[in-house]
Amino acid sequence: MKAKLATDGFAPLLKTPLPGPKSRAILERDRKVISPAYTRGYPLVIDRGEGSYVWDPDGNKFLDFTAGVAVNALGHAHPEIVKAIAEQAGRFVHMAGTDFYYEVMAAFAEKLCATVPGDSPKQCFLTNSGTEAIEAAIKLARYVTRRPRMIAFFGCFHGRSMGSLSLTASKAVQRRHFSPLLGDVSHAPYGDLEFIEKVLFKRTTPPEDVAAIFVEPVQGEGGYNVAPPGFLEGLRRICDEHGILLVVDEIQTGLGRTGKWWAVEHSGVTPDILCCAKPVGGGLPLGAMISRAGLQKWPSGAHANTFGGNPLACAAGLKTIELIEGGLLANAERMGRLLATKLQALAIRFDGIAPPHGLGLLQAVDVLKKPGVFDTERRNRIVDAAFRKGLLLLGCGEGAIRFLPALNVEKGHIDAAADVLGAVLGTP
Ligand code: PLP
Predict the structure, then answer these.
(1) pLDDT tens-digit readout, 373-386
(2) Can you give the pLDDT at residue 4?
(3) Are residues 288 and 320 in the same domain?
(4) Residue 1's pLDDT is what?
(5) One-character DSSP codes across 366-386
């Protein structure tokens, strides 16, 4: 008789070869009508989800360590979020917050703004996505400073619309054939304050022309690079010295994922503008560009959108923040430590797997050919092998595998994920 494992109830459960017949039929229909531009790495078709699990139409049960790319902070189909959406849908689905008022928009914004660091009162501009939050920050920064230029960092990802793409410097494929972009963006190596002061300011980018510096506290798509000690503090100093706005992109790192509401809090720095999206709408499209109230000196009509602050998304987002308040920051911190410890042990066991890097439940390991040289193809094969054993993962950067389970993840889920990793990290 097979011994019962501690992870048995938590482990993925596969019933068919992947993809199964029902999944294959959907993949075939999808291929005909959906743009090939999307970045799907393996053929997972989702039928339904619950907590940290998703099922495909063939009845296969997968353990989800992607959280829908850092969106599903409470996992799938959390009953209280489902209820909040249903209740709001029964009252009204849309009325355009750009032209009218409704309480759930104010209630969500009050709750969200209260989580953001800094003593002064905050105001937010609500969007439907991360890239729109960045666009709003670009426009506000230019509007209030009357300066044209921006600084961002190599490896950064701020979105794919033309303004945010002008900042993004993560992968060439994201920019190829899309020029001309905004011309007034300069890039510096992530973590290199001297480059900004001694090279950019002296040679190409006079500080008095710079409206804003955009930075991720942990570079997400760029490979989960955590800001080196002193970097964000140094940016704050540079911005203060030159009247530049510091814009922190917390679209992937925010709302509790790192064990604090916002990853920038690990440094103690107060940004001028904080951009967020992904988890803030509880799975529905919602983002925000948040600043101290005094900064938003732009008149009615200077910026607006039809769907930003959609009532369903605000209701789901409000419930999400309330649920996170109920102890999930501490869980993210505790489970993040457990996850990092497990990944550390696996890195010792397997050649070419580097120790984990990240904060809280935002962790990654690099797959390396040799020190400093990423093995992109092997990384992709490992992520695919994990899928074939029922663990959903995503890559990031050139050779990293990222781990971003829901914030309410339990020890059993992490043990079960580590079991699968133990079986696939040896993939050549
Ligand atoms: N900024 C960061 C740090 C992100 O990770 C992303 C998306 O992955 C974006 C911006 C863009 O967000 P969206 O895809 O919602 O436009």
Answers:
(1) 999 999 999 999 99
(2) 60
(3) yes
(4) 52
(5) EBEEETTEE-HHHHHHHHHHH
- Ligand 1: which of 218, 252, 273, 289 to mutate, judged by most atoms within 8 Å of the beta carbon? 252
Mark whether 46 and 171 lie in a shared domain.
no
74 occurs within a structural domain = no
Regarding whether 332 and 399 lie in a shared domain, the answer is yes
On the question of a cis peptide bond just before residue 206, with omega within 30 degrees of 0, the verdict is no
pLDDT digits (tens, 9 = 90+) for 252-293: 999 999 999 999 999 999 999 999 999 999 999 999 999 999
Ligand 1 atom at minimum distance from 134 CA: 10
Mean pLDDT throughout 59-81?
98
Model confidence over 321-332: pLDDT tens digits?
Answer: 999 999 999 999
- The Å distance, Cα 279 to ligand 1 centre, comes to 11
Tokens standing for 59?
């009845």
The three-point CA angle 40-224-108 to 5° equals 80
Tell whether 218 and 83 lie within a shared domain.
yes
In this predicted structure, what is the pLDDT of residue 248? Answer: 98
Residues 275 and 360 in one domain: no
373 and 333, same structural domain?
yes
pTM over 0.85: yes
Residue 350 lies in a domain: yes
Q: How far apart are the first and last CA of the chain?
A: 32
Atom of ligand 1 nearest to the CA of 131: 16
Please indicate, yes or no, whether residues 358 and 317 belong to a single structural domain of this protein: no
Which residue type does 224 have?
Answer: Y
Ligand 1 first shell, C-beta below 6 A: 129-131, 134, 157-159, 216, 220-221, 249, 251-252, 277
Q: Is residue 89 part of a domain?
A: yes
Q: So what's the pLDDT on residue 3?
A: 59
Q: How far apart are CA 353 and CA 372, in angstroms?
A: 12
